[in-house]
Write the structure tokens for this entry.
Amino acid sequence: NHYNNVIKFKETGVEISPDSIPDDVKYWPGQGNPFWREKFTFNLPDQPLGAFWDDDQDNVYDPTNGDFPLIDIRGCEPDDIGEAKELIPDQMIFWIYNDNGGPQTLSGPSSIQMEVQVQSFAYSTNDEINDMTFYRYKLINKATEDLVDCYFSMWIDPDLGCSEDDFIGCDVSRSLAIVYNQDAVDGNNGSSCDGTNTYGSEIPIIGMDYFRGPLGPKVFKRDAMGVPVLDANGNKILEEPEPYTGQQDTLIELGMTSFAYHERQIGGSFPPATTDPQRGREDGFYNYIRGFWRDGTPLTFGGSGYNPGSSDTVRYAFPDDPNKTTGWSMCTANLPFGDRRTLQATGPLLLQPGATNELILGVVFVPDVDYPCPDITRLKFADDIAQALFDNCFDITDGPDAPDITPVELDQELIIMFSNESTSNNFNESYKELDLQAPRDVDNTYKFEGYRLYQLANASVTAQELGDISKSRPIAQVDVKNGIREIYNWTGQANPLDPVTGPIVWTPTREVIGEDRGIRNSFRITEDQFALTNRRLVNHKQYHFLVLAYAYNNWKPFDIISGTGQKRAYLEGRGNVGGPDKKAYTLVPRPIVYEKLQSSY
């Protein structure tokens, strides 16, 4: 809504009233926010903080001048307000912490003087993105000397319901950590775990994708004459610089260089060297983020990964799928129940004073997976969507915005008319959006296809509940006249006969049956779809409605044998659903009252 106010401000030149700005926007911690002290008792530091679109380019955050919060991702800086809109998530939280503002009671007395600015954000959608959250860590080195052999690590304590029956693993090619349940029931009989709620027998799986690590120095490999050596494609070959020299020819983005874990000690059941680092001992923390055990023992292949004396060293623990019987996972290692903490790390690198780096993490959640030793195909599919979002600067593939409803309330009758404002992505019904999952050499653009109008049982019903006939009933569907009638989306599941090596079973879902008669924008409603007997609308009674717009793209018919082609031909819009206030439209039929006839009354 504030973004729409900014557009009106640019069109009309009328200043945005502070009272019309939502508090989350008004008190956003943007540098120089003049409203900050209205709510908080301390001053903002005079430095870049929460990112924002700076409409007047004065480096001061003032929402009355058209500024609004944004996601801050390196390489995704917007050039115009249209691009800026694509960097507005549905929810965003910002916080800051550092290691120099108090005593180091956990890792020891030394401070490296690191400031960390965090943005977490999420989207409300009707697909897998709805179950994802994203985190950007901006790390600023405020020390006055170099940090050598520095590592960055995402440390996560991922309790999946009950904390004491979790397994972990990773997909190295995706830089993805996974957390899944050890057995088919979460917790003790699926109902208790020291007072923690559990998932029972309907257990999800979670993945943590390490999208981006810090920038690390590289040098060009050179021959005896000092000339850079080229590979077969004519590119300069990169290699690690000599330690402590500060050499660098370029900076490149480093990926996940190790995946390690440690155990919460439960009843003395784990070797001490594999458990939580000890308070006040820096070496244990440093060893874990380097991909070693707490005592400096290298991570080695097989079992728990703690095999003193083994020379089969590895950098990634449990890299195989849980259902792969010939791989190395916690399932095949048959490890005991435990509470695991994971570390996705990058390094080593030289960190110089004033250096700024990013760590970006996406967390994907897939509900109701078959256990034990689950197939993670659905998780990988969800992670591919998350990766595509990151690669495209979180330019989410939005379907067409729903139209506004303009009603005419008549005697036992309602007239509903659709319209799309100029701020809608479907203005003049000309919506187009890139399909992030489609190849780039095909027709990979979703286009507006139609509208769906529903009557709701009550005003609190949401778009996610439209499949429940006790809560919503379709009353009208119109679409572009183009020969397209039935539209299907496809979902894949593990083969029930051979879940490990068998082919994926693909299931179609018919999303819509189109009229294929062309778009209409006005509708006459005379019947109550929830009435048991007489369906005629009743005067002075409230009726509730919701409208969706949807798009279509089918760049290649889906092939169930190869699993290639368009899996999602139907795309619903999520913008403006329920109108600008995000609620269902509530309309009331009423008798027509004429001034002249009723003047004496």
Q: What stands out?
A: The longest strand covers residues 340-351.
